[in-house]
Design brief:
17 helices, alpha/beta, globular, single chain
Length: about 575
């Protein structure tokens, strides 16, 4: 299954048929199961036979052999397909393995994942070996193929070469190209990106957009160039515009944009009452946002907002499977599908009491079941961040004429620096702080000032960033150096310092970008960090996303990138990074 062209070998398919013929026993029999039949849009009672990881029969019959079969009476329960997260960024402090394990407990059994971190941090060979290992876990893992780095890096032509993109697109686990954060380049005539889109379409793979604020005309142009879906609707009118242009439209409920309740209200006010082209996503939310659930939480919101019950489940299952051309495997409880099934105590309570993923119990009667093997991270070159250089006070020289002003969580504008930045510390009576981005290999740096981040953060260092390069922020250079050195000592992570003391750390032992801990532990670490930053003047919605957005050139107006201070609107480097 893991290194072959087909989902099941011929021998396995013959075994599946043999179960129906009574020559082999099912692995699992679900008797008296009231399940959601999406073809008839009804709840139907049937017996469900499962052999290993596949549903081999749904109907009234009982198997001829049951001696090697676990039999579960499902009377009183409601069964729905395992949920699908169509737009996961599985590197938000957590890692793909820990995130998959965590989301499985609330019924998400399939993830369609961003490949950005793998493309930027690993060789293609190591990235693909990681994808192979992810196929061994109970949660089904699919991937995207990014066409651009979402920032200005120094070696973009090598990382996002035609050969690399073609290899990713051809990979069996990759379902889509995108997301298209670089769509302005596409509209401006980037024919190489257009060629990659053409290749994806030739392979019957989808193209995911990223079109915040796009006009009707722009949406139409991008549809003509190949876009299939977009998740950037911020109003009901945005949803309507995308539906009218033929898009599958993804409704977002994330830590940075928890729009789903408002979107549904505004859609209903506009008379939208058909849901077949609608899906839902948490769009890479940070750990603590998932405390109350993941896809199950979105289904609950949809039901509360008046979406018909079956449509609410379809938006998280069948609609997604159809969009990605994987309906023959996922999205429904039917013969031939992968055995991903959620067991509910009531039809309108989407958080499951039990969960099957690839025919394995990952949760049973409210208790987690150990079904995930440990990962040898080092074998995939995912190990401690090794910074083999020293940072000195000479590196912390700030003479930039203007800095970055945070207008809100996503908008950063330039502003003229008027304070004295020649000293070793900055007053805490205002919200301006030193800001430094330094190459993880120590080859370059860019120094400026950031306004709006905080008033009383003395020293802060993070190897978690859009590119994996190092961010330093603070009022006091000594505390900034202390934060950097401690972050280096623990092998990567996020460190907050004050008065020559480390007051909080989040170790990120997988290349300095991801934690190797369970999501439950990371949630507590993240919540503690957020509380400490808020107490020191951080006022925006999500500090983890602030770290990502500092370099993200798909957002206006100015960013700090490996190439230097970058003007997004005019697409030019205003002040280049300095070689060390």
């Amino acid at each position: 299954m893991l290194d072959q062209r087909y989902r099941w070998k011929n021998k396995q398919l013959r075994e599946h048929v043999a179960v129906l013929d009574g020559k082999k026993s099912p692995s699992l029999l679900l008797k008296n199961a009231t399940y959601l039949n999406q073809a008839l849009r009804k709840w139907i009672t049937a017996n469900i036979w499962i052999y290993e990881d596949r549903i081999v029969y749904v109907g009234d019959m009982l198997p001829g052999q049951t001696e090697n079969c676990e039999i579960v009476d499902c009377d009183g329960l409601f069964l729905v397909p395992g949920y699908i997260e169509p737009h996961a960024h599985p590197f938000q402090l957590y890692n793909p393995h820990s995130f998959a394990q965590y989301v499985s407990q609330t019924g998400t059994t399939t993830l369609i994942n961003d490949n950005m971190m793998l493309a930027l941090q690993l060789s293609k060979k190591k990235a693909f070996s990681f994808l192979r290992e992810m196929r061994t876990i109970p949660v089904t893992m699919y991937w995207w193929c990014r066409f651009d780095p979402q920032t200005e890096i120094l070696d973009e032509e090598d990382v996002f070469s035609h050969g690399n993109i073609k290899s990713w697109l051809e990979h069996d686990a990759v379902l889509q190209g995108g997301e298209l954060t670089g769509w302005p380049k596409l509209l401006d005539g980037d024919d190489l990106m257009l060629h990659w889109i053409q290749e994806a379409k030739r392979m019957r793979k989808q193209i995911e957009g990223h079109f915040p604020g796009a006009s009707e005309k722009t949406l139409a142009k991008l549809k003509l160039l190949g876009a299939d879906c977009d998740h950037e609707s911020m109003t009901g009118k945005d949803v309507l515009n995308r539906l009218l242009q033929g898009y599958t439209t993804s409704l977002r409920y994330s830590s940075i944009r928890p729009d789903l309740p408002v979107l549904l209200d505004e859609m209903h006010e506009l008379g939208i009452d058909q849901y077949d082209r609608l899906i839902m996503t948490t769009d890479g939310s940070t750990p603590s946002f998932h405390e109350e659930g993941v896809v199950d939480k979105m289904i609950k919101i949809a039901i509360e907002k008046g979406v018909p019950l079956i449509d609410a489940y379809n938006m998280a299952t069948l609609n997604i499977a159809r969009h990605y051309n994987i309906e023959y495997l996922h999205g429904s409880i039917a013969t031939g599908r992968v055995a991903n099934i959620n067991f509910l105590e009531a039809s309108d309570q989407p958080t499951p009491i039990s969960v099957l993923a690839k025919g394995k119990w990952v949760k049973k009667y409210g208790e987690p079941v150990s079904a995930f093997n440990d990962i040898d991270w080092a074998s995939h070159d995912l190990s401690l961040l090794d910074l083999n250089y020293e940072l000195t006070m000479d590196d912390l020289q700030f003479s930039m004429p203007f800095g970055l002003s945070m207008e809100n969580a996503v908008i950063i504008k330039p502003y003229s620096i008027t304070i004295d930045v020649s000293n070793d510390d900055i007053s805490m009576k205002h919200d301006e702080s030193f800001l430094m981005l330094i190459d993880r290999k120590g080859k370059w740096r860019i120094n400026t000032v950031i306004k709006g981040f905080a008033t009383h953060v003395s020293g802060f260092a993070s190897s978690f960033s859009n590119t994996g390069d190092i961010i330093l922020i603070g009022k006091n250079k000594k505390d900034m150096l202390l934060a950097f050195n401690h972050m280096k000592e623990i092998g990567g992570g996020i460190v907050l310092t004050e008065n020559d003391t480390v007051i909080h750390e989040i170790p990120l032992k997988l290349t300095g970008v991801m934690s190797n801990k369970k999501v439950e532990e990371i949630i507590e670490e993240e919540k503690a960090l957020t509380a400490l930053l808020r107490a020191r003047g951080y006022s925006f919605s999500d500090p983890i996303y602030t770290l990502l957005f500092l370099s993200s050139t798909h957002l206006p107006y100015i960013r700090i990138t490996p190439q230097g201070i970058y003007d997004v609107m005019n697409k030019i480097v205003l002040f280049p990074s300095i070689m060390r």
